[in-house]
TrEMBL record:
One of its GO terms (molecular function) is zinc ion binding. The lineage of its organism: Eukaryota, Viridiplantae, Streptophyta, Embryophyta, Tracheophyta. This is Pterin-binding domain-containing protein. It comes from Eucalyptus grandis. The keyword Amino-acid biosynthesis does not apply. Residues 204-322 form the Pterin-binding domain. The keyword Cell inner membrane does not apply.
Length: 322
């Protein structure tokens, strides 16, 4: 493998930046001469190949959590897949040339980094990264970290275990599509139900849902069947609590939580990715990327615009980054 000295790192790089909060489509600017982030001793520098967008990115830009956010100028982006080009003095896990992926922001809404992943290079603590599964492209790998970690840790938070049943609200979305697969393949669910619009019901079944509910035609909370766990990925906890069995758990990742539902906010952790890599490499769990969901770096604002429609299936990814 190459050593640090064999890799030429430019002094200035391209990055998408917003200097003030607002709709990303309006405030994002492509800046050609951003400084390369300095790495701390527990960090590595990653040359980004692909980066994914998440709803938290546009909510952050719009100022949803400005009281706990870093100050602009901000380079958005949580998810990255790329190649390690430099290693901090205390970083022992990776070497130059390793292909890695991860959610580079440890606490999603608590002082997230100013320099995110919509840049040619990004600095990240090595504990937030894992080696990229060999069978996945950089685009597929970039689509996963924040969503799969949120799916996994939310299921853990809900006390999900083999033999339990689950209802997933928003089963075709970035997180929901992975909750279905994890519940079935990793946690041993006895029954998985999920909601989506009419055109996405077949996708839910292909991901492992035993019952696909068309939310345009049925109210899930009115079904006679109740579930051990409801995973609310859309912000409908008031309705979700009416679909859970007595003594069951409701976890929500969007909006306010109606008790007994619990709002869950991710803390990023590369060890979760390491734990799930075998399931990705055996293709028991597959990334879901929207058919229109890969945008070149120059079209990041268009990617945000598409994400904000709320109609995305799976994930939106920026690739190539250059």
């Amino acid at each position: 493998m190459a050593s640090d000295s064999d890799v030429t790192i430019p002094s200035k790089i391209k990055a998408w930046v917003y200097a003030e909060r607002g709709n990303p489509v309006d405030v994002l600017k492509l800046v050609p001469d951003v400084g390369v982030p300095e790495i701390k001793e527990d960090q590595v520098l990653v040359k980004a190949v692909a980066a994914a967008l998440n709803p938290v990115d546009f909510k952050r830009a719009l100022g949803f959590f400005k009281h706990t956010d870093s100050l602009p100028p901000i380079v958005p982006g949580y998810d990255v897949a790329g190649v390690v080009v430099k290693v901090g003095d205390q970083a022992k896990k990776f070497k130059v040339g390793d292909e890695v992926y991860g959610d580079i922001i440890e606490k999603a809404v608590d002082h997230p980094k100013q320099h995110g992943t919509l840049a040619e290079y990004t600095a990240v603590e090595e504990r937030l990264l894992a080696l990229k599964p060999k069978n996945l492209s950089f685009v597929e790998a970039a689509s996963l970290p924040l969503a799969i970690e949120t799916a996994y840790e939310g299921l853990e938070r809900a006390g999900f275990s083999p033999g339990k049943s689950i209802l997933v609200l928003g089963g075709a979305g970035g997180v929901g599509s992975l909750v279905i697969q994890l519940a079935k393949e990793v946690f041993g669910a006895s029954r998985v139900a999920a909601t989506s619009s009419t055109g996405k019901l077949e996708l839910l079944k292909s991901l492992g849902a035993d019952l696909a509910i068309d939310y345009t035609k049925e109210n899930f909370e009115d079904l006679p069947e109740k579930f051990d766990v409801v995973y609310d990925a859309v912000g409908q906890s008031e309705r979700a609590v009416r679909a859970v069995k007595e003594g069951g758990s409701v976890v929500t990742i969007a909006g306010a939580a109606t008790p007994p539902a619990v709002l869950f906010i991710l803390t990023s952790n590369g060890s979760v990715l390491e734990k799930l890599n075998p399931f990705l490499e055996s293709q028991k769990i597959k990334p879901v990327i929207d058919p229109k969901g890969t945008f070149p770096f120059s079209q990041a604002p268009e990617a945000f615009s598409y994400l904000q429609t709320g109609r995305v299936t799976g994930k939106v990814v920026i690739h190539p980054i250059a």
